[in-house]
Amino acid sequence: MRIAGFALGCWICAQAAAQANNWSTYGGLGQTRYSPLKQITRQNVNQLQVAWTYDATDGPIPAQTQPIVVNGVLYGITPSQKTNALDAATGKLLWRFDSGVAGRGPNRGLVYWTDGAQQQRIFSSVQSYIYALDARTGKVLPGFGNEGRIDVREGLGRDPEKQSIVLTTPGVIYKDLLIVGGRTPESLPAPPGDIRAYDVRTGKIRWTFHTIPHPGEFGYDTWPRDAWTYTGAANNWPGLVVDEKRGLVFVPTGSAATDFYGADRLGNNLFADTLLALNANTGERVWHFQAVKHDLWDRDFPSPPTLVTVKHDGKTVDAVAQTTKQGWVYLFDRSSGQPIFPIEYHAYPPSTVPGERTAETQPLPMKPAPFARQRLTEDMLSNRTPAIHQWALDQFRTLRSDGQFVPFSVDKDTVVFPGFDGGAEWGGSAFDPETGLLYVNANDIAWIASLGQNKGGATVEQLYLTNCAGCHRDDMRGTPPEIPSLVDLRGKKQAGEIAAVIRQGEGRMPSFPNLSRLDGVLIAEYVLGGQSKELESTGAPVNTPAYRFTGYRKWLDPEGYPAVAPPWGTLNAINLNTGEYAWKIPLGEYPELSAKGVKDTGTENYGGPIVTAGGLLFIGATNFDRKFRAFDKTNGKLLWETILPMSGNSTPITYEVAGRQYVVIHATGGRGGPDMPSGGTYVAFALSTSGKK
Description:
Elements: H1 11-18, E1 34-35, E2 48-55, E3 68-70, E4 73-77, E5 83-87, E6 93-97, E7 111-114, E8 120-126, E9 129-134, E10 149-151, E11 172-174, E12 177-180, E13 195-199, E14 205-209, H2 227-230, E15 241-243, E16 248-252, E17 274-279, E18 285-290, E19 306-312, E20 315-323, E21 329-333, E22 343-347, E23 361-365, H3 386-396, E24 414-416, E25 430-432, E26 437-443, E27 447-449, E28 451-453, H4 460-467, H5 469-472, H6 495-504, H7 517-529, E29 547-549, E30 553-554, E31 569-575, E32 580-586, H8 591-594, E33 610-612, E34 616-619, E35 627-632, E36 638-643, E37 653-657, E38 660-669, E39 678-687
Parallel strand pairs: 1-33
Antiparallel strand pairs: 2-39, 3-4, 4-5, 5-6, 7-8, 8-9, 9-10, 11-12, 12-13, 13-14, 15-16, 16-17, 17-18, 19-20, 20-21, 22-23, 24-27, 25-26, 26-31, 27-30, 28-29, 31-32, 33-34, 34-35, 35-36, 37-38, 38-39
């Protein structure tokens, strides 16, 4: 599969070789998650041992961090979003930075910058703030922003105190710029998803790109006239990648708010659900591709793009690969934006919901084939037992299942397949420049969804339905463990505790600073007691759309397993030179099913793979078995596995210190249910001295 004269001469290989000892950026060089290290090989990987561990657990919310390593120092994050610097060879703590702000959600990485001489900085995000730290000491650098930090709620043209925006995924460095996106709420009110570049020394904004165009800007006519003043999101939450050679930053964006009913944002809604190529110096648009027009399905790009080099039509092409929740891979020429493989535009049915207007066509890549199943049919339902199959069949016949881009309706539940969590997710893809293979892990289970008509009126019930039901559902049962049941809080939490979470956010839940403190308490009391109280005392208007999303519902059978037949999670190797699959295997297992002989089911998985010149692909990710695995990258054969203290719902790294190669994963858990442990232990593996070659 190796292409003579192509792999060894590629830019990624050369740059990776120059930085082989380090893993200095989130996602690795070019977001490839590739390392040229090869001390650990197919032949000796079964001799891996735990070299050190560091328990960073200091809170209940998993951080999902991929650490970075620079010059023998590993920089990582704790669940409460403190920054740690560890000796990368021993795990010994060198310093810790505590901002004093309580982090309350996932935080997937850090940013390193150096001027090549004396200055070395770590940029650490905590909630809405980005801190500049001295990489040697962990001390705040007061010349950056306001006494060492910037507030990403500022500079958006709206009241900062009423905005909710945090960095779950770190930004990127280009020269002396720190370029960032951010996670916003997915219902209104929400801030716009502006992409911004800050001066790494001063923290001042150097440029801004409006993903919801202002008057006179390209794409303004794809929104209602004043949408830029009131709508939000179209944000970059999964991360970015920089092509330093071309001076481009590639930015995948998410859906516009509100996710599922867009009567107040009619039009195609550029630049939501778009892969943007921006001039990294100025922020000017170079090219773009919109994958979903007028998104009504929350089909945002879920992972950072990957810079790849492929052979196509006899030519070597520098390209950018982008995976999707639907299970597709888009591949574009980096300079021009021209697709490497054909993309066709297909028509889909219109919405039947009053006020809604769907796009007439949506783009579909013709190659590679999807890495997740696309349309659920009766023959794909669970056969785990005859009774479960009959249950699934009876349920399925009440649902609408017509594949992609089917508008949700009020009168019938619709199948979303693959589900709202992919397909691909935030862990990203790995690319092997030696072979041209792209590796992507995927979820492959169904969810169901519908819309509901709002009642209107100034009641606490309507306030809950407007702000909370889109995630926690009308019946408050949520989708555990990703979205907890609120019914379970009764008798366990006080109204004040719940109100604080509403105001501050926690885990996947954004904060709601637009709600008054009294509103938060009233919602909390409603959740705990089910009483619908009048809102006259708050003075706060309840602005409700005509229709709302009734909540995320994962389609599970009565015993808690997916209602569709396996595989429920996969690991895929796609040859980007040809668009064909090299191999595909189930990823993950349920230990209790395996004990009964039901193996190779695959499971939901979060966190991505890495690939090495030693012939290996390493991945944790799986929710239920807590395993960390190494596969032969050429054929998918399992070569090694171990049990982690918690599920490895993060992406690993590899690096070398003093001639010894290490592989580190942040074992976090938090995705497999309330009985599964969660926390934040960094686990480092290496060969014994006798196993090194």
